[in-house]
Amino acid sequence: MIPKPFIEDLLHRVDIVDVIDRHVKLKRAGANFVACCPFHSEKSPSFTVSQTKQFYHCFGCGAHGTAIGFLMEFSGLGFVEAIKELAQNVGLSVPEERRADGEPPQRHRGEGEAGEDLYAMMLTAAQFYRGALREAPHAIEYLKQRGLSGEIAKKFGVGYAPEGWQNLERAFDNYQSKALLTLGLAKQSEEGRRFDLFRDRIMFPIIDVKGNVIGFGGRVLGQGEPKYLNSPETPLFEKGRELYGLYQARRAIRDAGRVIVVEGYMDVVALAQHGVEYAVATLGTATTPAHVQKLLRQTDEIVYCFDGDNAGRRAAWRALENSLAQLADGKQIKFLFLPQGEDPDTYVRQYGKQAFEKQLREALPLSQFLLNELSSRGDRDTSEGRARLLQEAKPLLKQIAAPMLSLMLRKQLADVAGITQAELDHEFQIQSVAKPGWGAKAPPIVKRESVMSPPQRLVTLLLGNLALCNRVSDEQAAMLAGAADYAAALELIHYVQTTEQPSVAAFLETARDSPRRALFENAAARILHDVWDADAAEHDIQRILLGVEEQKVLADYRRLMQKPLTTEAEKDQWRRLSRRLAEFKGVSAKAGAGG
Ligand SMILES: [Zn+2]
């Protein structure tokens, strides 16, 4: 655990422009710096770094964060590792804080309980399995039968876990080490007997973006069960975030401009064998939003490739649901269903690369798949059937943040349901706000300020002008605490009022674990262009606070009027509230007249 004041101090000393420029050459553009985004492929720069705010944001793919966040994303470092690297750059050493409950300092991710290097242990295991493959003719024969060359096996580090229960005893000095259990390489029976998790299986090491082995997938050679066995979740391996083959495929994904997501590691390896090198696989889990986000940073097009059977269609639907919120205009998600009985492995082996890529080109766009699935569930010839279709589409459409895609889908859906788009938007409570910037280059997000709710707007204004947090009085803060949806603004105000040298970057880092983190990051992205000067911002902030007060006064007034006024105190309160309400009317009348 690293003390928070240290993180704040560190962020004051490093300059995000230096940190990023070391990895990605930045060019000055007005108040900010820009570059072509390292997280997605693009020709004109939409990756923007603000030196004043110490924050980066990509208007193309939405990647954003502080210097710490950049190192985590770009170099694949953990939070603590990223801080250590930054600290080293400015000559600070990282203090480790003992936890208040007297527990020892938290270890970092790659460290076992007895100080073992977990990454090194995984590498040792991978090397052992690779060596064991060379001594297992029947395993080599099996791979050959599946059409894999020695070259591809080497590229993916394919190995073999021999038969028998304690083979890893030969690979590790201490087979009894607890770290082997932590890493899921060994298990222990109730009687305390150790044994290897993987036995008589073809081994596929799972590698993170930095090239570390973090887990394994093991496939049986014959008919045994389970057919596929993956490492359990460990301190190194989070299934919902990792994708098999991404490390090997990164270059090919950029060159091809797309990535294919398949279901198994054999599919990835078989496709690579046949020259389709831009495939990755999820690891025994459904596709998660984290997966989608990770992939959309690499490329603009994802093609999910599933079996055409019912299980495949269900998996595809889950993938669709988890992709909707991640979509931005200009990004494409498609679905490829192979003919019954085929998977990518069998298909590419039988028909080859060209036929497979032809299938890819004919994959269904997400919008088409969505409409097909929804229409197939009900009877489109009856009003009831069409009403149900709309009912099922509503929650899905509401998740789509990409304005153009949302519009196209609403048009098509209205068509299918036999109503007008205006009727549909009304039904779905979607405001057809004309969104500026379509087709323009890198639309400045701030132009959409009209669609921000007052609570969002307040956070954004305050984040853009931190000093104004000190102008919020205690009474106003108490009022915000009583109103719905202002918790984020309060969190920010509290931070500024209790911090000696507040900064946007330090705040974002302290809010890393806050449930409102996404909201803060979106606000930070909006302020990159500095559209509000402090006076205008203060005026706006006071107007929002007045709005909150008006709501409160009105609510108090109504509550008071529910029964006759009897005591003097109640009458006093009534006079006070009425006066305040009249003042509000005056304010809004004036504001209206002033236009
Ligand atoms: Zn980007």
What does this structure look like?
By secondary structure, this protein is of the alpha+beta class. It folds into 5 domains: 4-89, Zinc finger, CHC2-typedomain (DNA Primase, Chain A, Alpha-Beta Complex); 118-230, DNA primase DNAg catalytic core, N-terminal domain; 251-367, Dna Topoisomerase Vi A Subunit, Chain: A, domain 2; 378-427, Up-down Bundle (Pheromone ER-1), CATH 1.20.50; 449-594, Orthogonal Bundle (DNAb Helicase, Chain A). It has helices spanning 4-13, 16-21, 67-75, 79-89, 118-134, 137-145, 150-155, 178-182, 246-256, 265-273, 289-298, 310-323, 344-361, 366-377, 383-399, 403-417, 421-427, 454-464, 474-482, 487-497, 504-510, 517-526, 534-560, 568-594; strands at residues 27-29, 32-35, 47-50, 55-58, 64-65, 159-161, 186-188, 194-196, 201-207, 213-220, 228-230, 259-262, 279-281, 301-307, 332-338, 364-365. The strands form 4 sheets. Strands 1-2-3-4-5 form a 5-stranded antiparallel sheet. The longest helix has 27 residues, at 534-560. The protein is globular, with a radius of gyration of 29 Å. It binds zinc ion. Zinc ion (ZN) binds at residues 37, 39-40, 47, 58, 60-61, 63.
